[in-house]
Amino acid sequence: MQKSMNLDKKIIVFKYGGNAMIDDDLKKKVLKNICSLKDRDFHVVIVHGGGPFIKQALIEAEIESEFIDGHRKTSSEAFEYVEMALKGKVNGKIVSMINALGYKAVGMSGKDGKTVVACKRIQEQMVNGAAQKVDLGQVGDVDLINSELILLLLENDFIPVITCLADDKAGNGFNINADMFAGHLAGALKASQFIVLTDVDGLLRERYDPTSIIRDLTLGATNQLLEDEIIQGGMIPKIESCEIAINKGAKEARIINGTVPEQILEVATDMQVGTVIHR
What we know:
Blueprint: E1 10-16, H1 24-36, E2 42-48, H2 51-60, E3 67-68, E4 71-72, H3 76-100, E5 105-109, E6 116-120, E7 123-127, E8 130-134, E9 139-145, H4 148-155, E10 159-163, E11 165-167, E12 173-176, H5 178-188, E13 193-198, E14 216-218, H6 222-227, H7 235-248, E15 253-257, H8 262-266, E16 275-278
Parallel strand pairs: 1-2, 1-13, 2-10, 5-10, 9-12, 13-15, 14-16
Antiparallel strand pairs: 3-4, 6-9, 7-8, 11-12, 15-16
């Protein structure tokens, strides 16, 4: 659901995470370059997770983490610490850094203004050749998007900084995969670009060969690359999030290296940077 508003600038949605989030000096450079796109007549939205911070919070609380098919099983006890890490620590820090750069940031999660409505994720796991449903606890998927609050913030010159938490219709809290969360938001906002910041220069045809970067990729080509195991590991959810963004309404998606902050500015030019995904 999206209320029509008069936005005269294109929207760029960033999924921010990985090593670009851990080092404070690098974080400042990344955020400075993201925010400077506002000076080039773009609206900017930042979506973030915070796996390393969640891990540390759970260690300090002496709560064991269990991963099932890449998803962190999240009990009600663990969810309290997940929420504290993402909303209290990571989100607040990003907002403070952006404000110190002279811009106006507003920190929020999907809960605020019912921007994102979650549903419980139903995970299936193969056990002895048979699919079995696994309860991941308070791990969710995106059910609905209401972009009204984000558009209102953009229209009033704020930078929304959004973490990947949301309630379901009954008010139960869920942690949602940040890549998927960001992709859905980018689609709902009809973003001109959805930018996924990662730790490599883009999708590589040969995993350890940076010169083998695939510069241009259509949605129709991704299935074959998955079959050929060119898309694998942590790149799978990133490609999936790009597909979601485009199928939901974003014009194009791009995977770039967040540890090379100058690449961020190049998304506003015609320069080739990262892997561009489009229809």
